[in-house]
Amino acid sequence: EVGCHEGRTTALLAERCGSERVLGIDRSQAAVHAARRRFSGIHFEVLDVGLRGELARGLPELKAVEKDSCLGACFVDLGGDSRLSSVLRALAELRDCLPVPQLLVVKSEELVRLHRLSLMPDKQSSSAALAAAWIGCSLSGE
Questions:
Q1: For the segment 91-112, what is each residue's pLDDT rounded down to a tens digit?
Q2: How far apart are CA 17 and CA 25, in angstroms?
Q3: Helical ranges in the chain per DSSP H
Q4: Most buried in the list 11, 12, 43, 141, measured by CB within 10 Å?
Q5: pTM (2 d.p.)
């Protein structure tokens, strides 16, 4: 789980999947220390996936993971109100470092807003809206 904070959701995932198959990541050292205290049998790391290369530097064992191997699920919660650019930067970092997950769950109000915008009949197509978001420009060309 990326953005695990104090580990509650990570602990639920560990109950379901086994603690040896779960990893909690957060950029807050205080939150990760709290998670480690509360859930000592689960692996937690202090990493900021918004920083380019941070995931690979912080978890060198990822280099041994084959890109075509199977990753069950990846949960991303950087704070539901995180800016879209932050969410996309984190997703790009995960894409570059991890195998493609069977399930990707991203908690983001900005992605919901973008999706709703793409469904509006008077706006550009959803693919144009998504492309605009990826490159950081507005739909109006401003």
A1: 888 888 877 778 888 888 888 8
A2: 17
A3: 8-17, 29-38, 54-58, 84-97, 109-119, 126-135
A4: 11
A5: 0.74
What residues does 105 pair with on adjacent strands? 75
Question: Which of 49-61 are b and which e, b meaning 16 or more Cβ less than 10 Å from the residue's Cβ?
Answer: bbeeebbeebbee
Taking only the tens place, the pLDDT of each residue in 18-41 is 888 899 999 999 999 999 999 999
Report how far apart the first and last C-alpha atoms of the chain are (Å, whole number).
35
The phi, psi pair for 44, rounded to 5°, reads -125, 145
Which residue has 């918004």 as its token pair?
Answer: 50
Q: Hunting for tokens 């953005």 — which residue is that?
A: 3
**Packing angle between helix 109-119 and helix 126-135, nearest 10 degrees?**
140
- d(CA 116, CA 126) in angstroms, rounded, equals 9
What whole-number distance in Å separates Cα of residue 78 and Cα of residue 60?
Answer: 22
Q: How far apart are CA 7 and CA 30, in angstroms?
A: 12
Burial class (CB in 10 A: 0-12, 13-18, 19+), 123: middle
